[in-house]
Each structure stands twice: as C-alpha cells, then as structure tokens.
Amino acid sequence: MPQHGAALTRRAATPHPTPVNRRTPPTTPHRYMPSPRIREGYDLGVTSAEGKHVFISYVKEDQQQVDQLCKILDAAQIPYWRDRTSLAPGDNWKAKIRDAIRSGALIFLACFSDNSRARPKTVMNEELTLAVEEFRQMAPGVTWLIPVRFDDGKIPGWDLGAGRVLGDLNYVDLFGANYT
User: Per the count of CB atoms within 10 A, which of 12, 94, 97, 125 is most buried?
Assistant: First the structure.
C-alpha cells in the first residue's frame, strides 16, 4: 500500500538515472531505464506534501506492468495514485480522477503500450486530456508529464500546445532486459 504524504528528500550525491542511448541527438527524446538505485529504494528526488502523489495513467490490460512500477515506487517510498488502489466502492470515480490529476499530482505518468495504442476509446485518454490541460498552464520547462513505454512502440503525438507534442518529451522505458 502506498504511503501517502510521506516526506521524501533527494540524496545530494545520487545522480538521476542515466540515458540508455547517449548518442541520441538533443532534439530526440532520451530513453531512461530505471537504474539499480531505483530498485533499491532511490527516492527519485520527488518531494511530497500531504496528499501529493505520482498519478499513474494506463489501460487495464497493462495492470501487470503497472503492478511492477508500483512496487518500485513503494520501495522508494513515493506515494502514487492508481485507480485500483485509490478508489473505494461507491466513489464518484470521474471526480476522484479529476481531483487526483488537478490538485494532487506531483508527476503524471502516462503509460503506453501496444494495448493502449490498440484501443481508440479509453479512460486513459480522458486522464491524458486532463493532464494536458494542466500541463499547458505550467511554466515552460516544468517536468510534470512523463511518458512511459511498456514496449518499444511510439509515444502518441498528443498536442501539448505551443507547437509541442507528447512525443517531444523525454520518456522512460520500463521494459526489456534492463528492467526486471
């Protein structure tokens, strides 16, 4: 179970995970793989305030990959919001999701796979629409919306405004031999 509201600090001597492909031109999004530090409880530099969390957006067919991601976040004591563990019976799920994105998300993880790309109509699309609205209001250069790949497929070209698309953002690869 995530520990919501836990105070997290960044270890000054611990660098961020390094890019997988250092030869990638600066105009191409970098791919990051979780390093052993993350699996061992590296805190990712996320600072939490009461009720703040990492919001995880995904399609239900990717529950196993999201379970693995949540284990990593739990080990790092990073609170997260996920529909399966954050919604109670009888909750107005649309309102809860909207509130979790608009007022509680420190970071929004948009998880993509062949499963998400194959479905034209999903709740994930609604979540991503809300996230893009929030992201457009943020100052340029703010890291808040992070694409995550569960396979080697392309990041969709969602319009982020100001000539930017989702595929322009650096993304995280959570698959393959380096991610177990």
Answer: 97
Instruction: Tell me which residue has tokens 């979780």.
Output: 34
CATH of the domain at 70: 3.40.50.10140
Strands 105-112 and 53-57: what pairing? Answer: parallel
**Alpha carbon distance 72, 51 (integer Å):** 19
Q: What is the pLDDT of residues 94-153, one digit of tens each?
A: 999 999 999 989 999 999 999 999 999 999 999 999 999 999 999 988 999 999 999 999
Beta bridge partners of 149: 112, 173
Residue with tokens 């739990």: 74
User: 176 CB contacts (<8 Å, ≥6 apart)?
Assistant: 33
Residue 20 maps to a domain: no
d(CA 148, CA 68): 13
Q: Is residue 141 part of a domain?
A: yes
Token couple for 127: 């979540």
Give the domain extent around 89.
31-173
Q: Write the pLDDT tens digit of every residue in 45-75.
A: 444 456 799 999 999 999 999 999 999 999 9
Question: Dihedrals φ, ψ of 49, to 5°?
Answer: -115, 165
Provide the domain count of the chain. 1
